[in-house]
Automatic annotation (TrEMBL):
Glycosyl hydrolase family 32 C-terminal domain ranges (all copies): 335-533
Protein name listed in UniProt: Apoplastic invertase
Family that this chain belongs to: Belongs to the glycosyl hydrolase 32 family.
GO biological processes: carbohydrate metabolic process
Species assigned in the record: Solanum tuberosum
Gene3D superfamilies named among the record's database cross-references: Exo-inulinase, domain 1, Glycosyl hydrolase domain, family 43
Domain Glycosyl hydrolase family 32 N-terminal: 12-332
Subunit structure: May be present in two forms, a 70 kDa monomer and a heterodimer of the 30 kDa and 38 kDa subunits. The ratio of the levels of the two forms within cells appears to be regulated developmentally.
Length: 540
């Protein structure tokens, strides 16, 4: 196996070669799903960015087309950066994207429309001459003015969009309004802003239902009670955060709920490697789907040049509001299950302290695993050190890794493991007793993922807390999607999601193994474990 291919993913979205980043303008139009994305047609590092374009009938098998948008005019000569699609009421799609107009990264907002609506794949896109549509006024930092959202229409018949920006380290979602989608006026106040959060990239703003898991169109104005979600990608730490709140349509402002905080102590769509995400409403299946970019972590540009490719898109996830109203839930789209092949199943298997066993009979380098764990009491939970309250979850995971014996946990999966565990990426839970409640830590720890010795390797102990009540239900579930160099995990039915990129040297292809382990004193029962080898979809 050549260096080029050893870490290539099997069922994640990837073009045949070169660099990719942000997913752009995902949409469903006349029976076809479209995904555009930031792409370097000339190499495997960021640069020469165009909008690559792929289409699909099922979000799993893809046809790669010619780039839809590439720099060519004064208004995008130095780059065609991220943006979004809106389907106008007469069923006409339009794309808004950021054009870079000079070598200092000055930014404007442009639009593009399909050249031929009867082409089922919408291959060709036109950038009309009345571009740019929006230029920054004097109050705006020209180099921090990008990534327009999908537009939504208010009761007054005006379209609205948000554009990411920053003023004096205050991140903001600038609001613009338009009657005809061509002439846009900046609102006096941003939709929302927050001090000390730095530039907001790729904002995403959408309604969620309080009643069920169905998605809502951005312009939803029906009777159902809704909340709104504002997601931003923070370029200061390359993670993204969201809040849940109320959209005051009279004042045209978004107000996060009291318990929903902006910035790096807030909620994350994913506690690992996941950035510049974008969601869209899928009218076919009445759901909202979010796509996110998962970049490489083998950091040396040299690695990417050798491989000839860099970046994947995470598995698209259905996203909805948790019944508590406090957080989102995400789950891999159901179409992914069509790739499941050989299956193995286990029931009611007990794992006592220090036990570990191998899950055999599936391909451990390309798999989908669903497991539910139960335990009979919380008595063994370790004390949560009050000093950790100020730490990020990933720092607590670094202190309390999978091999440090505990009380209730650590238990979970050792993924992409070599036979003798020289390499593995454990995905696991650990339950702590804090002053007033229990704290459930979920980790996806890349620190032992590879034997490769290199100071620059990024091998973080990604982690997040899981907000479940274990007092009533002494159960925790985990789903992990393993795909050669990515482990994408969903804790407690999608409450906490963590994606890690890892680069094993031994645990590759048929030499990868999968284990289940318990390093806590409390015995854990595997109620059910279902695991499947995963097929490779068509992607050409
Ligand atoms: N990537 C794009 C920008 C965006 C950033 C450029 C986020 O539009 O802000 O490739 O990854």
């Amino acid at each position: 196996i050549s260096v080029k291919n050893v870490h290539r993913t099997g069922f994640h979205f990837q073009p045949p070669k070169h660099w990719i980043n942000d997913p752009n303008a995902p949409m469903y139009y006349n029976g076809v799903y479209h995904l555009f994305y930031q792409y370097n047609p000339k190499g495997s590092v960021w640069g020469n960015i165009v909008w690559a374009h792929s289409v699909s009938k099922d979000l799993i098998n893809w046809i790669h087309l010619e780039p839809a948008i590439y720099p060519s005019k004064k208004f995008d000569k130095y780059g065609a950066w991220s943006g979004s699609a809106t389907i106008l009421p007469n069923n006409k799609p339009v794309i808004l994207y950021t054009g870079v107009v000079d070598s200092h990264d000055s930014q404007v907002q442009n639009y593009a429309i399909p050249a031929n609506l009867s082409d089922p794949f919408l291959r060709k896109w036109i950038k009309p001459n009345n571009n740019p549509l929006i230029v920054p006024d004097n109050s705006i930092n020209k180099t921090k003015f990008r990534d327009p959202t999908t537009a939504w229409m208010g009761q007054d018949g005006l379209w609205r969009i948000v554009i990411g920006s920053m003023r004096k380290h205050r991140g903001m979602a600038l609001l613009y309004r338009s009657r005809d989608f061509i002439k846009w006026a900046k609102a006096q106040h941003p939709l929302h802003s927050s001090p000390h959060t730095g530039n907001w990239e790729c904002p995403d703003f959408f309604p969620v239902s309080l009643k069920n898991t169905n998605g809502l169109d951005a312009s939803y104005r029906g009777k159902k009670k809704v909340k709104h979600v504002l997601k931003n990608s923070l370029d200061v730490n390359r993670f993204e955060y969201y809040t849940i709140g109320m959209y005051d349509t009279k004042k045209d402002r978004y107000i996060p709920d009291n318990n929903s905080i902006d910035g790096s102590k807030g909620l994350r769509l994913d506690y690992g490697n996941f950035y510049a995400s974008k969601s869209f409403y899928d009218p076919m299946k009445n759901r909202r789907i979010v796509w996110g970019w998962t970049n490489e972590s083998d950091v040396l540009p040299d690695d990417e040049i050798k491989k000839g490719w860099a970046g994947i898109q995470a598995i698209p996830r259905k996203v909805w509001l948790d019944p508590s109203g406090k957080q989102l839930i995400q789950w891999p789209i159901e179409e992914l299950e069509t790739l499941r092949k050989q299956k193995i199943q286990l029931n009611n298997k007990k794992l006592s302290k220090g036990e570990m066993f191998e899950v055999k009979g599936i391909s451990a380098s390309q798999a989908d695993i669903e497991v539910s764990f139960s335990f009979s009491s919380l008595n063994e939970a370790e004390q949560f050190d009050p000093k950790w309250a100020d730490l990020y979850a990933q720092d607590v995971c670094a202190i309390k890794g999978s091999t440090i014996q505990g009380g209730l946990g650590p238990f979970g999966l050792a993924t992409l493991a070599s036979k003798n565990l020289e390499e593995y990426t454990p995905v696991f839970f650990r339950v702590f007793k804090a002053q007033k409640n229990y704290k459930i830590l979920m980790c996806s720890d890349a620190r032992r993922s590879t034997m490769r010795q290199n100071e620059a390797m990024y091998k973080p102990s990604f982690a997040g807390y899981v907000d479940v009540d274990l007092v009533d239900m002494k159960k925790l579930s985990l789903r992990s999607l393993i795909d050669n160099s990515v482990v994408e995990s969903f804790g407690a039915g999608g409450k906490t999601c963590i994606t890690s990129r890892v680069y094993p040297t031994l645990a590759i292809h048929n030499n990868a193994h999968l284990f289940v382990f318990n390093n806590g004193s409390e015995t854990i029962t595997i109620e059910t474990l279902n695991a499947w080898s995963m097929d490779v979809p068509k992607m050409h």
